Amino acid sequence: MKKFVNDPKDYVAEMLQGLALANPDTLRYVPEYNLIMRADAPRADKVSLVQGSGSGHEPAHVMSVGPGMLDAACPGDVFSAPPADFVYETVKLVASPKGVLLLVNNYTGDRMAFEMAQELAEADGVTARTLFIDDDVSVQDSTYTVGRRGVAGNFFVLKAVGAAAERGADLDELVRIGEKVNSVTRSMGMALTACTPPAKGSPLFDLPGDEVEMGVGIHGEPGRSREKLQPAREHVREMLTAVVDDLPYASGDSVALMVNGLGGTPVGELYLVYGLAHRQLAERGIEIARSYVGEYCTSLDMAGASLTLVRLDDEISELLAAPAGTAIRVF
Amino acid sequence: MKKFVNDPKDYVAEMLQGLALANPDTLRYVPEYNLIMRADAPRADKVSLVQGSGSGHEPAHVMSVGPGMLDAACPGDVFSAPPADFVYETVKLVASPKGVLLLVNNYTGDRMAFEMAQELAEADGVTARTLFIDDDVSVQDSTYTVGRRGVAGNFFVLKAVGAAAERGADLDELVRIGEKVNSVTRSMGMALTACTPPAKGSPLFDLPGDEVEMGVGIHGEPGRSREKLQPAREHVREMLTAVVDDLPYASGDSVALMVNGLGGTPVGELYLVYGLAHRQLAERGIEIARSYVGEYCTSLDMAGASLTLVRLDDEISELLAAPAGTAIRVF
Fold it and tell me: Within an 8 Å CB–CB cutoff, is residue A291 touching chain B?
């Protein structure tokens, strides 16, 4: 294993310490519960947004805390759901009189932790609701999932409810917006290489040098098929066809297109993939109104990428365009 | 080779097409000269800034075009300097009455191409100046270099002169600012793995599974030493010591600290490295006033990172904090 790591068991804590040190004015790290929160949370005038999942998907979710985005993120260890009591403590720390919205990707372990935390917090008098995200069209059930997995499309649900929350929308309104965005969002990814969890020290699965995992999960879960490596345009066509046919997206639709890197793929390749996807969508008569290219939800150091489409309307477009800020920035 | 690529010889052109398609309102791709320029360049009220180098270092430099940054970038093929005539055509396309400033990392091939382009442009009546950047403390001369290499510290020179250019500073003033920032900027990087150029199809150099290249160049050039893989804190200490001792940076200094990923290292590891570097600087009494964590100047898919320090004063701090925008963004 070749990684920047000290003791692998300290990987997540040391990453979070670095994140807080780099953002001293805006973020706070709470080591007792392994959480990152906005320095100004909770605010009485807005619903607080909380998300968590296993670590290893950065910038999701600990680097998505900030104005117009999350109020707190409570990550578990690499690829492990956070403990329910840590989620509960997170909810209490950011509890606002307007309530708390929990955003959860659809994995069995995450659902259990967040549902238990919600019950505990409600018993304490906190108003809380939960939104589940399940945008991955690759497989119906999966290694860690009943139903579809939640992957990079999470970003769009969070961005939209985050913008609405910042303006004072109430919990019911946020649930309506989040469910609506999730309902028009679809993703699929593929792996060129396996990822290596720090504590394991070796690749999580075997992938021969001339094969790809089409429809891979963000924890290395199997996808639809093991295929031979092809020119990029063929892989893009297969992913895009699966995504487009699922909703389906149709000629005349206006969409957001995200090309998400899985951690080990350089941004130059992501823009190459973007160009191919853009043209293939244009051939179908689908208009790309918003573009996202970079890393949003990764799988440690996995080489690979996912494509996400969101069907836009005026409400969603406006929420996606609203100002926001996180630790991930250039300047 | 496992990459998103069609024909490797089209890699750069297809990446640039994707970049322009994702930014239709702000960027223009000119295929004849393989360049990316601002849609609103040239502007008569500002000096135009142009940069180029081999491709494979993205986001440098083609994804650094935008307000407060570059007016145009003319990349060569992967790890190859752009042809002098393409640089010349780029300079002509963005020539402003206030002149053109060429920013060039110190590599022999890039220097030759840009110096020839400047001469040709001046013969056409364009006022042009060139700024060389050489922040890498690793080695004095290198495979492609007489003198020190220019690496990720380039970002700070560009950001500062970009901010000043946007406000109407003249060429002399921009050269003064750029030389000043370069003179207080130092970097060093290390590779955990080699990178694989698309046209080569195999790793550029051999690096055993338990070794790192300390002081690696961004084209895979040898650094100071081949070393055994160590806990991250030891590697960070070695890089930081080399950087700090070089200027030297001293107790009481206020600095910007950049942790730059080389392409294959996930952002979680970069934040872990950031935390270690931050604390080691604090132990030396050096205050970190600005933080940068992410990919700024990469080497294709190389796993690794570099550290850059900039000694700040009021002028540099203010220029680094000024608004700017490029293709690399989250929202």
Answer: yes
